[in-house]
Amino acid sequence: MIKDKKKNNDKPKIISLFSGCGGLDLGFHKAGYQIVFANDNDKSLEGTYTKNLGKILIDDIVNVDKKALPDADIVLAGIPCQPFSNAGNRNSTNDLRGNLFRQVIETLQVKKPKIVLFENVRGFLSSKDENNDFMPERIRKELEHVDGFGFELYYKLLNASDYEVPQNRHRVFMIGIRKDINKGFEFPKPINNKEKMKIKYVLDKPFPKNEEMEIWDLSPQSKRLIEHIPEGGSWKNIPSSELPARLIRIREQIKRYRSPNFYRRFSRDEIMGTVTAAATPENSGIIHPIENRRYSVREIARFQSFPDQFKFVKASIRQKYHMIGNAVPVNLAYHVALSLKEQYFN
């Protein structure tokens, strides 16, 4: 478990909801916060979170007694993103997961923290609720009317590669500041080190000794197809004679299908694309630039800026790819956490 170097009494306290394997929490921990409660309903990530960050309650948030939660300065709420992603069903609050933010509102009403943080995918900005309101405005209205005090909302689309994460990953961060302490909020300024975010710097760094390289094997079809893709290429390099019938149909009607770029193999001189939970070679850049395989667990963890000492345990290899792909990049969370700390906890 990661050790605290500062006395816990001096640290802003966090309630973490929808914690996942701990990317958001680890970023805040690195910035000097104390996690006093964490919750998720996915049993497969319990071992990983516990080993690296501490205790986590595995249960549906609906079952969590909000009055029994410890007091905290901040509530972190990385609401599951599937209803809001471009690849999801876009049903927003009509989807059960889309309504989970109501559980966060209940937590705010009971615990009255100074700050709440929501994080979600880019598609959240254009998703609408059941009243046809865009979701950020829906959340703004909800936060303004939290009983007795209310929050002011600040939100911005951030690219993780601007914040020391070797991955182009756009995420919406929404910061609610309690009205009685609100003095505005400025998001962290981008850090100009894009050259160091390229894939070659991730892969050239020595990997931990005595750590098994865990690689999720590709399907026979994917193995056959990626042999035709050079570094920096994609399915466009695969001869039609080698493509399955479905992909041939798409290629023949490419504009109708909005010109997808399947089987992307990023080059070492590019920044990695978005790491997805599914880790499918067809729809994400999960293919190693020069080896005919998926990236390993440790490699994709690095693309999410997890430190090498962060261990993924007691889960299947597919579950490890899934939890890493779902995580908030650690360094992105860290820089947002630092900005909050400098503006509200110094």
Could you report the average pLDDT, rounded to the nearest whole number?
92
Query: Using DSSP, what is the number of strands?
Result: 7
- CATH architecture label of the largest domain: 3-Layer(aba) Sandwich
Structural class: alpha/beta
Q: Report the portion of residues in β strands.
A: 5-15%
Compute the number of helices.
10
Ranges with pLDDT <50 over ≥5 residues?
A: 82-92, 94-98
Shape: globular
- The CATH C-level class name of the largest domain: Alpha Beta
The arrangement of helices and strands along the chain is EHEHEEHEHEEHHHHHH
Remind me, CATH topology of the largest domain? Rossmann fold
User: Helix share of residues?
Assistant: 25-40%
Largest sheet: 7 strands, mixed
Counting structural domains, the number is: 2
What integer value in Å does the Rg equal?
A: 21 Å
The largest sheet has its strands arranged as 3-2-1-4-5-7-6
CATH superfamily of the largest domain: Vaccinia Virus protein VP39
Distance between the termini: 27 Å
Describe the structure.
The chain has two domains: 8-191 and 328-344, Rossmann fold, CATH 3.40.50.150; 195-325, DNA Methylase, Chain A, domain 2, CATH 3.90.120. With 346 residues, the protein is α/β, with parallel strands linked by helices. The protein has helices at 23-30, 46-52, 101-111, 135-144, 199-204, 220-226, 245-252, 297-303, 317-326, 330-344; strands at 13-17, 34-40, 57-58, 74-77, 115-121, 151-159, 170-178. The chain has a seven-stranded mixed beta sheet with strand order 3-2-1-4-5-7-6, sandwiched between helices. It contains ten helices and seven strands. Helix 1 (23-30) packs across helix 10.
